[in-house]
Write a structure and sequence with these properties.
Blueprint: H1 8-23, H2 43-58, H3 79-89, H4 97-110, H5 113-125, E1 130-133, E2 149-153, E3 156-163, E4 174-180, E5 190-196, E6 203-208, E7 217-228, E8 232-233, H6 239-250, H7 267-277, E9 279-280, E10 283-284, H8 289-312, H9 323-347, H10 365-376, H11 383-394
Parallel strand pairs: 1-4
Antiparallel strand pairs: 2-3, 3-7, 4-5, 5-8, 6-7, 9-10
Helix pairs in contact: 1-3, 4-5, 4-6, 7-8, 7-9, 8-9, 9-10, 9-11
Length: 401
């Protein structure tokens, strides 16, 4: 079964996107960029990436399928094409990952007309950076165990609580926030808010330093912070249902508002080049049969992921809307970790040289990638949670205890 043929308009858009990216590739950044939006730390990195997302949005490569009244392109099924071309071009990633992949699509589905016109354009352009306020010290995998409390007071909500692992919180103007509005119901006692963050009274953002030495994560404390009821998304007590929409997009089970960029078209090539350049006892590491076998196993795994991604785009093969995307998220994160682990093993003692050491292979990419890979197996629900969802909701297995 073949994928649906592209229309002439879609083919023209693909050619336009490819040509625009070739002609408008951004200049080198003023300082080293992190591996992903999860580790953006400096104002220089933010400004460079924010400007790049703004250019892509103005060119029509972001928010392609959103209504024009909300800052989009007004097309249908153009965004997957733009995402593919952004990946092939290997341009810098989009900074507003939470705005594009979580906030904008959730507001589009659950927001009022006023909220859509107010919040979606800034999320698409990158002019207003978003962060996610779901995780708490006692509510990670058990997301329904939210303790941050929002108490109604007139036309406002008074919020007190503690959020953690908040990516981009130090640069975010807005947060998609789940807070408890009733202690009598676990799921129906949650409400979803569009919360002001930057410079807002009662909101404190503190950076968290990971083992990579980077501090893109934060903790956010709310102390009698006031949120207008006009910033409540959907009805009181519907927070869990709205959050499920957000997680559907975060886990890749639905198309986001924009591609990430910065993707490598052939992740195996870096491992192969490393093996060819690395010497062991006077011999090239690529000549070692054990290393060659390990490389081939990674090539096979990555080809399987590519073919699975193709299958997900073929109508009729997605028998369950969550199966292939969740499977892809699960296996991609573990594949990333396995690739990085092999890179560290091939580099050997040189893998102890980190990103600021001029002698580090590929500027210290391999140890940085390996340490960062653990975050990928936790974000958007741990891989254990993903397996439970696939087993229970897709395969129909008994619910785990």
């Amino acid at each position: 079964m073949a994928a649906s043929p592209s229309s002439p308009e879609q083919n023209d858009f693909r050619e336009y996107a490819r040509r625009w990216l070739q002609e408008n590739a951004p200049p080198p950044p003023p300082e080293r960029l992190p591996m992903s939006p999860l580790e953006i730390m400096t104002v220089g990195q933010r400004n460079y990436l924010q400007d790049w997302q703004g250019q892509c949005h103005a060119a029509g490569l972001i928010g392609c399928d959103y209504p024009q009244s909300y800052g989009g392109g007004g097309h249908t099924n153009f965004q997957p094409i733009a995402n593919q071309e952004l990946g092939h071009a290997r341009v810098p990633f989009m900074i507003n990952i939470v705005g594009l992949s979580m906030a904008a699509p959730t507001i589009l589905k659950h927001g009022s007309e006023e909220q859509k016109r107010r919040f979606i354009p800034g999320a698409l352009s990158g002019g207003e950076i978003w962060c996610q306020g779901f995780s708490e010290p006692g509510a990670g995998s058990d997301m329904a165990n939210q303790q941050t409390m929002a108490v109604a007071e007139g036309d406002n909500w008074i919020v007190n609580g503690h959020k953690v692992w908040t990516t981009l919180g130090h640069f975010a103007r807005w947060m998609i926030l789940i807070a408890r509005t009733s202690r009598h119901h676990k799921y129906d006692g949650l409400t979803y808010f569009l919360a002001p963050i930057a410079g807002h009274p009662g909101v404190t953002v503190r950076p968290l330093v990971k083992m990579t030495g980077e501090s893109g994560f934060n903790e956010v404390l709310f102390e009698d912070a006031v949120i207008p009821d006009s910033h409540r998304l959907d009805d009181i007590g519907k927070g869990w249902a709205v959050a499920m929409t957000t997680l559907t997009y975060e886990r890749g089970a639905a198309e986001s508002a924009g591609g990430t960029g910065g993707q490598s078209s052939d992740p195996a090539q870096g491992l192969i080049e490393l093996a060819r350049e690395t010497q062991r006892n006077g011999l090239c590491a690529a000549a070692d049969p054990v290393t060659r076998d390990a490389l081939m196993q990674r090539v096979i795994a990555m080809e399987g992921l590519r073919q699975s991604a193709r299958r997900a785009r073929v109508p009729g093969l997605c028998d369950h809307p969550m199966r292939l995307p969740l499977q892809q998220k699960l296996l991609s994160s573990e594949n990333h970790q396995a690739n990085a682990r092999l890179g560290v093993e091939i580099a050997g003692a040189a893998s102890t040289l980190y990103k600021l050491d001029p002698n580090a292979p590929r500027q210290g990419y391999w140890p940085l990638s390996y340490m960062a890979s653990y975050g990928n197996t936790i974000a958007a629900g741990t891989n254990e949670i993903q397996r439970n969802i696939l087993g229970e909701r897709v395969l129909g297995l008994a619910k785990s205890k």
